[in-house]
Write a structure and sequence with these properties.
The complex is a heterodimer.
Chain A: H1 9-26, H2 33-56, E1 65-73, E2 78-84, H3 86-105, H4 117-136, H5 140-149, H6 151-161, H7 166-199, H8 206-212, H9 217-234, H10 243-250, H11 253-263, H12 265-278, H13 280-307, H14 311-331, H15 335-366, H16 377-380, H17 382-395, H18 402-415, H19 419-444, H20 460-478, H21 481-495, H22 507-511
Antiparallel strand pairs in A: 1-2
Helix pairs in contact in A: 1-2, 1-4, 2-3, 2-4, 3-4, 3-11, 3-15, 3-20, 3-21, 4-5, 4-6, 5-7, 6-7, 7-9, 7-10, 9-12, 9-13, 10-11, 10-14, 11-15, 12-13, 12-14, 12-15, 13-14, 13-19, 14-15, 14-18, 14-19, 15-17, 15-18, 15-20, 15-21, 17-19, 18-19, 18-20
Chain B: H1 2-7, H2 19-37, H3 40-64, E1 70-72, E2 77-79, H4 81-102, H5 124-131, H6 139-152, H7 159-177, H8 184-216, H9 221-230, H10 235-253, H11 261-268, H12 271-296, H13 301-324, H14 329-350, H15 353-377, E3 380-382, E4 385-386, H16 396-399, H17 401-415, H18 421-435, H19 439-465, E5 474-475, H20 480-498, H21 501-510
Antiparallel strand pairs in B: 1-2, 3-4, 3-5
The chains are: A mainly alpha, B mainly alpha.
């Protein structure tokens, strides 16, 4: 069975990294330099294809576009089915923009004799291909398979190329994710059995499941929890976050960006794609508790970030706080909150990515990630210091930078329906200012610490790594409308299941012309 | 007397339908003759040829009979879908085991099989035998007799035939366990232990048989089923009979609380024989268990399912928990096989068509992956034999990426990671169990899968992330035979994970049992 819907861009975008892997292993083993160039080329080619797909996407068109569906395992009703909506499109674009940056940032990460650079870059490209597949799959079984498969390359990237406690961090990451994934498997099986009873034939086609199933409330709650816990671990939401600081701190810089910036978005994406449309009743009745978790996470992550001495762990805890904001927007069930959360996913990838990258540059120069080992970095490496400052400001949502728009939308969207959750969440912003500015103050200002006198400034490669990220942060801060236009219709149809009459106007109207 | 003789009619036997079993038996007899009459120099090659020819011939016969459905030998043997599917599976698994045994490249002389089993371990006789390069080949006919019993076991349609098959498959296995070339005391201990406990469980089986005969007045499975439907007899006999017969069968599949022989026997037996026991014996025993509980006791689900639930839960948890504490790779795989017995029991408990076909599929995929995993064990060697202690495997994946990678694949498949055969099998039995109303069992299954993932992953961590040990074990280059067996195992593990539909069709067409 084939259904067509325009050019199959997904196959191109996901296929180019796979082609890159084949080329890497076809290139001569004694020249590992080749593998880096191939990885960069493949990821840029994939980016170009994504831009092309975005140009061909009609935001007013069908919910899922560029759809391709083939039977895969008939006995399980599973299809090899891909298609993108606005949310998926934004996240795929985010992935393909960040991957070349990550490749370039990891240029020398696999060189100190640990293992071959070829494997490193092949694993990075494999991650990209799988993540694109995850964001584009419109079959629950396929999604589950890719969701689990995604763990394997990241596990080896952390475990083989990471810092001193890499093995511990990799195993913790894998076991947490597997435990969540297996709970999700039970829910996936449950969904299959219910669809078999109701439709006569078991299917995993998302478009069928989201429209034709009628589940009792208890069934909804049970299945919702299976999916929710898996996504909450992946996202990670408090109290399922404890794997993140270890994994992010031990991962090489590029992999940390991939992990926190891109992979973890699968969790929040899953809330929007599966938890809410498939089980609206359960989502509605459980939302207050989940909002409670989100707000707790916002404050808890921020407070722990303040107490960190390791810069990478600080950024990781700040992400726990940010993921609380994203989930807050998702489970407020308002168009503003949902669009803000989706935009937040993209913005968070770039702002946290920028922080990880700059911290990585600093750590590579000093050989330490501890805040107390730094001081006065700005006066020896002014450009590096400036980039650190901007990245930090974007993490604390300074107006004019991209994260401000999304955080504002999330808070407004939440405030209209759950006033007190929004009020408490606002303290997260205050705490963000504390942990960011205090870290910046201790590391780049003040007298130059001994050992830092000869620290070099950004080199050309590093400038090329950080420049596109900064450009996106500023551009989306000033003019987020094109992205919001793509996101809004999909968010609207996502929430149509939980809130037939949306109390707030669509976002574009109120925010369209923001300077 | 004369009247009795006149009344006795020899039952008509469909020799064609029984050809898979008969071919293997003939090959076993030929093997005995070869051992008696062929010159010593050519014995090994001849034995391997006869065994492989017999098994391949038997497999071809299964394929030719694929659509055959017939009761024969006065209803004592059922040639139906499940029998043929399992006979084909056993033939394939036995071919792989023969290939592993026949490979003498890891160790000159008799490979992993002892030269003269009757000599005292460590005695002068033994050293002289080794020095003279003596090798005996009785293991091949023994194996063929065991395989003949295994093929009869799932096809046996009355309790007496079932008992005959059980003994035919068990007796040669008891002997084969004691044939290890290295660590002979351990091996002999394993053989004695297996023999004593096996004999004990056979006694239980016989006692149960007697009870059921007392209840129904017949030993035929469908006769028992009909008697239970009418229900005019003493139920105590029936329940006792089910319980005792169940003990005998549960012992063979290694379900808790009858699993305690598994780790010791699996550890002591020569590794290729362990592979045969873990894979083919388990397949045969599950085939018999399925037939007995689906055909004879299918209408009595209310009586035995609660107990089977308990056994399945205990088996999954005990297998996964105890595997975590093991420091010997062979023992770890033994406990993992206990856990897998629990997973398959989940399919048995489902008591529906999907449960049967899912269990059949699981047995095939699990069997080949297990043989592959044990095959890898034969390659990793210390001066005094196989290096089975976990600490010796540190860094193995870095020194021999191919062997490490293949072993990692088998472990991931056993852990049930998507895109491997293990996941497809797990999905099949779990979804059958959910539609059979056994959702809590599936939740326990998911939890124990997560625990099981821990110890599989631990081995991968050790192989790839740990520093290699200084005087680490040697990884021998596999001979053609071992390489062939491993290649088949890898191919099946991947294909059944990615494109399982044809084999799923096969297992779906194999149901139901002929009554």
């Amino acid at each position: 069975m084939t259904s067509s819907g325009g050019f199959p861009w997904i196959f191109v975008i996901g296929g180019l990294p796979l082609l890159g892997i084949a080329l890497i292993y076809a290139s001569p083993a004694e020249r590992p330099e080749e593998s880096k160039r191939i990885a960069l080329g493949a990821s840029i080619a994939s980016l170009i294809a994504t831009v092309w797909m975005c140009a061909a996407y009609h935001s007013a068109g069908a919910r899922f576009q560029f759809v391709r569906s083939y039977d895969w395992i008939k006995a399980f009703g599973a299809h090899f089915a891909f298609g993108v909506d606005g949310i998926g499109l934004a996240l795929i674009l985010m992935t393909t923009v960040l991957t070349p940056v990550i490749v370039l940032a990891s240029w020398h990460d696999a060189e100190d004799g640990k293992r071959s650079p070829r494997t490193f870059f092949a694993l990075l490209l494999a991650t990209e291909a799988i993540v694109v597949g995850v964001f584009a799959s419109i079959d629950v079984f396929l999604f589950y398979v890719l969701f689990e498969a995604m763990l394997i390359p990241i596990y080896f990237l952390i475990g083989s190329y990471g810092g001193a406690r890499r093995s511990y961090a990799a195993v913790k990451f894998l076991l947490y994710s597997l435990a969540g994934g297996l709970l999700m498997l039970v829910a996936v099986i449950g969904l299959f059995v219910v669809s078999k009873h109701q439709l006569g034939h078991g299917t995993f086609d998302y478009r069928v499941l989201s429209t034709q199933l009628h589940l009792s409330h208890n069934e909804q709650v049970a299945l919702f929890l299976g999916f929710f816990i898996a996504f909450a671990i992946k996202a990670p939401l408090w109290p399922f976050h404890t794997w993140l600081p270890d994994a992010a701190a031990e991962a090489p810089t590029g992999v940390a960006v991939m992990l926190v910036g891109v992979l973890d978005k699968v969790g929040t994406f899953g809330f929007l794609r599966f938890c809410i449309p498939l089980f609206p009743g359960a989502a509605k009745s459980l939302a207050p508790y989940i909002l409670g978790l989100c707000v707790t996470g916002i404050l808890y992550g921020a407070l722990l970030a303040i107490g960190q001495r390791d810069m990478k762990r600080l950024v990781a805890y700040s992400s726990v706080s940010h993921f609380g904001f994203i989930a807050l927007g998702v489970f407020a069930f308002t168009s503003q909150g949902g669009s803000g959360a989706t935009l937040y996913m993209v913005n968070h990838a770039f702002s946290t990515g920028a922080l990880f990258l700059v911290v990585g540059f600093l750590a590579a120069r000093r050989g330490s990630r501890q805040i107390e080992d730094f001081g006065g970095a700005s006066s020896v490496a002014p450009w590096l210091g400036a980039m650190f400052l901007v990245a930090g400001l974007s993490a604390l949502s300074l107006p004019g930078l991209s994260t401000f728009v999304s955080e504002f939308l999330v808070l407004v969207g939440t405030f209209t329906v759950h006033r007190w959750f929004a009020v408490v969440a606002i303290f997260g912003i205050v705490l963000a200012a504390v942990y960011v500015l205090w870290m910046v103050q201790r590391t780049i200002h003040g007298p130059v610490k001994p050992g830092l006198e000869n620290m070099r400034d950004l080199n050309l490669r590093e400038a090329w790594v950080i420049a596109p990220v900064m450009a996106v942060i500023v551009a989306l801060g000033i003019y987020p409308k094109p992205l919001l236009d793509v996101i809004n219709p999909s968010v609207h149809s996502t929430f149509s299941h939980v809130r037939p009459s949306d109390p707030t106007p669509p976002v574009a109207a109120s925010l369209g012309g923001r300077p | 007397m004369t009247t009795l003789a006149a009344d006795f009619h020899a039952p008509s036997i469909a020799y064609t339908a029984l050809s898979p079993i008969l071919i293997v038996t003939v090959a076993a007899v030929v093997g005995v003759l070869v051992d008696a009459f062929a010159p010593r120099a050519s014995r090994w090659a001849l034995q391997v040829t006869v065994s492989l020819a017999g098994l391949v011939g038997s497999f071809v016969a299964v394929c030719l009979l694929a659509h055959h459905r017939q009761l024969t030998a006065a209803g004592a043997i059922a040639v139906d879908g499940p029998s043929l599917f399992l006979q084909g599976t056993i033939a394939v698994l036995a071919v792989a085991s023969v290939l592993l045994i026949s490979d003498r490249s890891p160790e000159a002389g008799g490979g992993s099989v002892v030269a003269e089993a009757s000599t005292t371990p460590g005695s002068a006789d033994e050293r002289a035998g080794i020095a003279a390069g003596r090798a005996q080949t009785e293991i091949f006919p023994l194996l063929m007799f065991a395989v003949a019993g295994m093929m009869l076991f799932p096809a046996a349609n009355d309790l007496l035939m079932l008992f005959v098959a059980l003994e035919v498959l068990s007796l040669p296995l008891y002997l084969m366990c004691g044939l290890a070339r290295r660590r002979r005391l351990l091996s002999q201990e394993a053989a004695v232990k297996y023999f004593l406990l096996g004999a004990f469980s056979s006694a239980f089986f016989l006692y149960g048989l007697a009870m059921l005969y007392g209840y129904a007045g017949t030993v035929s499975l469908s006769g028992i089923q009909q008697a239970a439907v009418v229900g005019q007899h003493n139920d105590t006999l029936l329940v006792l009979g089910i319980g005792l017969l169940g003990v005998g069968l549960m012992f063979k599949i290694g379900a808790t609380p009858f699993h305690s022989w598994i780790p010791d026997v699996y550890q002591g037996a020569p590794t290729p024989v362990t592979a045969l026991m873990a894979a083919a014996t388990k397949v045969a025993a599950f085939g018999a268990l399925l037939r007995v509980f689906y055909v004879a006791f299918g209408g009595l689900g209310w009586d035995w399912r609660p107990v089977a639930w308990g056994v399945a839960i205990a088996t999954m948890l005990v297998g996964s928990l105890f595997a975590v504490t093991q420091t010997d790779v062979k023992r770890m795989l033994a406990y993992s096989s206990v856990a897998h017995a629990g997973f398959i029991l989940v399919g048995v408990v489902a008591l529906n068509r999907a449960g049967l076909s899912g269990s059949l599929f699981y047995l095939l995929s699990y069997g080949l992956t297990t043989i592959g995993a044990f095959g890898i064990l034969t390659l990793v060697r210390d001066p005094d034999g196989e290096a089975t202690h976990l600490s010796r495997w540190a860094g193995l994946g870095r020194r021999s990426p191919l062997v490490g990678g293949v072993f990692a694949l088998f472990l991931l498949a056993l852990a049930g990671i998507p895109l491997t055969s293990g996941f497809t099998g797990k999905f099949a039995v779990f979804s059958a169990a959910v539609s059979g109303g056994a959702t809590p069992l599936v939740v326990v299954g998911a939890i124990s899968s997560a625990m099981a993932a821990f110890f599989y992953v631990r081995v991968i961590v050790l192989m790839f992330f740990a520093e290699p040990v200084a005087d680490g074990p040697v990884v021998v280059t596999p001979g053609m035979a071992t390489a062939g067996a491993l290649a088949v195992a890898v191919a099946v593990t991947v294909v059944l994970g990615v494109f399982p539909q044809p084999v799923l069709d096969l297992s779906n067409h194999a149901v139901p049992f002929l009554r």
